[in-house]
Amino acid sequence: MSSPASVPPAPPTLVIEAGRAEAHYWRDLWRYRELFYFLTWRDLLVRYKQTVVGVAWALIQPALTMVIFSVVGQLLRVPTGDVPRPVLIFTALLPWQFFSSALSASSGSLVGNANLISKVYFPRLIVPASAVAVSLVDFLISAVFLAVLMAIYHVVPDWRIVALPLFVFIAFGAALGAGLWLTALNVKYRDFRFVLPFIVQFGLYVSPVAFPSEVVPAKWRTLYALNPMVGVIDGFRWSLLGGHTALSPTGLGLSLLVVVGLLVGGITYFRSVERRFADLV
After folding, report:
1. Which of 40, 102, 230, 266 lies at a CB distance of 3.0 to 4.6 Å from 175, suitable for a disulfide?
2. Model pTM?
3. Cβ within 8 Å of residue 40, ≥6 positions away
4. Taken in order 141, 266, 187, 278, is the CA torsion positive or negative?
5. Which of 10-19, 30-39, 49-58, 72-81 is the least confident region?
6. pLDDT tens digits for 151-176?
7. CA atoms of 202 and 240, how far apart (whole Å)
8. Would the CA dihedral through 97, 259, 103, 135 be positive or negative?
């Protein structure tokens, strides 16, 4: 009597669990830095692929917005001090455009990379961070246009420009912090893709883009500074316009606290739900 055929053992189950080695998670971010570069470069190529004007789109939208706000501001006689209105507006549009585009790109980044997330382990934080980095490239392109605009209107920065990288860093932190919240929530609740355009539009009008912060009544400025972009925009103007605009230390401090809260809270929440992304995307 022949012995029954042996049954091969079942293959091991592959479990993709982001951040499974907690002690190594932040080291893994550095180990997977080439993936960060690849995702950033890929998104840059895709953004402008088969477009007629290419990277000029990074200038067209803020330039048109500047023209509209300049006309409306002139009609409403919004005070600008001794700073030319187009320069005053574009110095605010530069960080705002970076923040809003980074927020929009990072919020859908995990869903857009669903195939990659469901197949391979890597720190998921790389995905929204690369989306913010793409928007930073657009920011640098627009900064060249601002330099030309300032030269046309003979606006020359002074020593305060050395503080500009600090405000760029704060803007990056605000975009990444808010983006981590939205991208993590968007994985589970797809409603946020419909809410986000409203948030961005509302934020544009309540931020000092078309007007200086000085027009806000003094009794409301502390509350107004809780908008993290208030400190960033005021800082950009203070750095670039040669001291023609004021920078409130209290307002900057409040905005900075909100940015730190957004970033720390965003990372904490993102990490708490990260291991479930592969199942939800």
Report:
1. 102
2. 0.84
3. 130, 133, 134, 137
4. positive
5. 10-19
6. 999 988 889 999 999 999 999 999 99
7. 26
8. positive
